[in-house]
Each structure stands twice: as C-alpha cells, then as structure tokens.
Design goal:
Order of helices and strands of chain A: HHHHHHHHHH
Largest interface: A-B, 54 and 54 residues
Strand content of chain A: under 5%
Oligomer: homodimer
Radius of gyration of chain A: 22 Å
Shape of chain A: elongated
Number of helices of chain A: 10
CATH superfamily of the largest domain in chain A: Tetracycline Repressor, domain 2
Helix content of chain A: 55-70%
Chain lengths: ~230, ~230
DNA sequence: GTCTATACACGGATAGAC
DNA sequence: GTCTATCCGTGTATAGAC
C-alpha cells in the first residue's frame, strides 16, 4: 500500500534475543519514518488543493488510505503536520537556491538559478502551491523560516548582484526587484497552472513544451538584467 | 456605519402619495445596493486573509458590523457572495487591461500596462490575493471568466505582440511567456507582500518606495522583451 | 429589512479496544 | 501501531419574531 522507500531491514540485530527476531527498535523506527513520509506527501497534495483551512484531516487520511486517527498518531495536530510540510518544502527550495552559488559568471549563475527554479516548479508544483498559499494568507506559520533562513540567503545574493553591477556585468537593476521577478515568474508556472491551462488551450504540460518555456523564461530574465559574461568584451 | 457611496436620494418622488414620503422603490433599491457593496468589500478582505474555505460568514458579518443572518439575506450562499467578489475583481482587472490598447508603440503600451498592473496591486492588494488564491486552488469558480473573458483578451494581445516582433520592434519572445511574466511580477507585490515585508526589512509599503519599485519593474520588463519605440532608429 | 435562536452537518481531536 | 466510536466546537443556512 505504501509506495515509499524500500525497506532497509536485515541490518543486523541490535537487541540480542533468544528468538531469531528482527531488530525491533530499527523496525519500529522505520515504520514511523515511512508512515510519516507517506502522510507528508498526501498532506502536501491536499493542502495544495484546498489550503490549510480547507484541507481536513479526513481528506488527508483518505488519500493516504488510513483511518483518521492514524494521522493524529503521527502528527499531534493538523498544524504540526502542515508545519512539517512547509519545512520539507524549504529544504527543497534551499537545494535549488544553492545552484546560484559557485560561479562568478552572472549569465551562468542567474540562468542556472532560473532553470533550477523552473525545474522545481515542474517537479513539485503542489509544494509550490502550498508555499504560495501560506504567504498569501500572511505567512504566519513560516515567519521564522523567512526571517532566519530565506532572508540571510537573499541578502548575500543581493550583495553578489550589486557587485556584478558595480563591475559592469549587469545593468543597474534593483537586486531585490530582480530576485522577486525570478521567483514570481518561475513559480507562476506551478501556482497558476490552472490559469495557464485555461488560457493556453490545454497544452503547456508536456515535457517538451515545458522545456521550451524554460528557455524562454531564461532568455527573458537574462535580457531583463542585461547580464553579460565576465570574459565577454563590452 | 457604512462609508460607501453617498446617498442619492431626493431624486423626485415616483409614487405619488398624500404624505410627503420619499420614493420608496428607489430608497429600497439604494439600501440593497449600498448593503451589498459594503458586504462585498468586507468579504473581499476576509476571503483574502483566509481563503474561501477558511473564511466564515460569521467573520464577514462581524467585519461588516451586521448579524450573520443579514449576509444570507443579501447573498443566498457563501459561494454566491464569493462569486460576486470574483466578478467585481475581473471588472477592475479588465479596466487595467485596457491600458494596453490604444497605442502602437510597444514601449508605451507594455510600460503603461505594467504600471497599470502595479497600480492595481497597490490599490487593491486584497482582491489580487483572492484572485490568486482561487487560481491556485484550481479556479473552478472562475473557469467561465477565464475562458470567455480573459482568454479572448490575451489572444488579441498575443497577436499584437507577434506583430511587433515581426516588425522588429520587439525581440523574438514568446508572447504568452512575456504576458505571464508581467502578470506574475506585478501581482507578486500584492500577493506576496507578507514575504516582501519579511525579507525587505519592514519597508516596501511607503508610497515613494512603491513608485520606485514600479519604475524598476517597468525597466526590467522593457529590457526583457527588448522593446523599441516605432520611431526609434536601430 | 433586521435581528435572535436554532437546525444540522462537519471538523479536529481523543478514548480505548484490538 | 492500528482501528472504531465518540466528544465537542464551529460552520452554513434557515425560521420566525420584530
């Protein structure tokens, strides 16, 4: 019933019994881990479709194929479950954010970041919706994540961008306005996919079409900030 | 208590009475009109803060300063009220959309449209949130608006943009990708204001700062599509 | 047109058997 | 760890007095 990670049992018994029993501690820990992961995935989908208030624990339980009480066994409250989904999402966001580091070429860095964000929108659109929904409604359940994790990261990116501008590698843009444009545009393809489908004549979901769109977005952003590679002549 | 439109009474009596009574029909019609407008404004705020499912008729009634039952007197169901809010929002969106027409200069047309959308984000951020929330959750309550009103408008804009590209006034961009970038970026300042405030150090709400941001966004978009005025030399 | 009181369903959370 | 049954608050919507 659970299509999660394969079981990693038979890892050697830790609690020596006379019975040839499997390692109980580990087995129990794995059950919890696997059940939590499964519930988190189902919760993400329901929160994306209906929002925090609109989602009910009954819906999440039904999608997970377990009774309602099991949800409360693994996560004490609906809010705790929601919070875990948000933390999970931040980790994924943070991995994509790291593609921004590691190069001093603004075209490569910004273009790569846009691609990573587009890929995230394609791979995990439900998560993007949960995130967007939370911010639209005030972000009270992720204020600490924004303040302690996202803000420091953004501040370093602003420094890097301002440096590129000072060295003539970028047009004189407002760094934050640029970052917001990248976020808004890339996440639009996940969050507003219902509108895109309604306006685009049903397509925009095929892999090929999405890759073409990604290229378009990269070009738009690169042109928007007037990026030029460091080794290019002026 | 109601801070809506001023009463337009004393418009001449229609039902001749011996009493010097005011025109009853008109007076009643005005009461309804005014009460509906007031409820719509309060509903927009609550829907923006909590989403459709999260909003309760009790909250809307409380904000409007009326008993819960009055809400159901003017709007039969919560969904009917929500639907009216969405229709109202579309009308406002449509007015801003019209700034795109009327000129053949892509810099003026696109720049003006971006300004109009930014102004809409500043003037009615709650409405933008309701709209975004609805689309994120599947847009089932506004599928007809998207299909019959937004899509035809977008299609004509795509034609105009493609024509500009053919005449060398714009870089070879995907017209829809450009429009989505404009929508996403401008609406970001309304929908994600909680995040912007969390990341920007409290500001970004003053009138001056918003105008500066608007100029930045206009410049970013104009550069993104490589717009050139028709009378400019190459 | 406005209000109080209420019907009735659903939601989150818990108790306690297995 | 899993399940059934249930408590209790809240939500939408309505009845009916004023």
């Amino acid at each position: 019933m659970r299509d999660d990670k394969p079981v990693e049992e038979a890892a050697g018994s830790e609690t020596p019994h006379d019975e040839a029993s499997p390692p109980l501690r580990r087995r129990k820990a794995h059950i919890r881990e696997s059940a939590e992961a499964h519930l988190l995935a189902c919760a993400e989908a329901v929160f994306a479709e209906r929002g925090f208030e609109g989602a009910s624990t009954a819906m999440i339980a039904e999608r997970a194929g377990v009774p309602k009480a099991n949800v409360h066994y693994y996560f004490p409250t609906k809010l705790a479950l929601y919070r875990r989904v948000l933390e999970d999402l931040f980790e994924d966001w943070h991995r994509a954010a790291n593609t921004f580091e590691g190069t001093d070429d603004p075209v490569a860095a910004i273009g790569g970041y846009v691609r990573a964000k587009m890929e995230l929108s394609r791979r995990r659109p439900l998560g993007s919706k949960v995130w967007a929904n939370e911010i639209i409604h005030g972000a009270e359940h992720m204020a600490d994540i924004l303040e302690q994790r996202v803000k420091p990261w953004l501040d370093t990116r602003v420094t890097v961008i301002d440096d590129w501008i000072a060295r003539g590698l970028l047009a004189d843009v407002d760094a934050k306005a640029l970052m917001y444009m990248i976020w808004a545009t890339t996440q639009h393809y996940a969050d507003f996919d219902a509108q895109i489908r309604a306006l685009g004549g049903k397509r925009a979901l095929s892999q090929k079409a999405f890759e073409a769109t990604t290229d378009e977005v990269v070009q738009l952003v690169i042109r928007a900030c007037g990026a030029r590679s460091p080794d290019e002549d002026r």
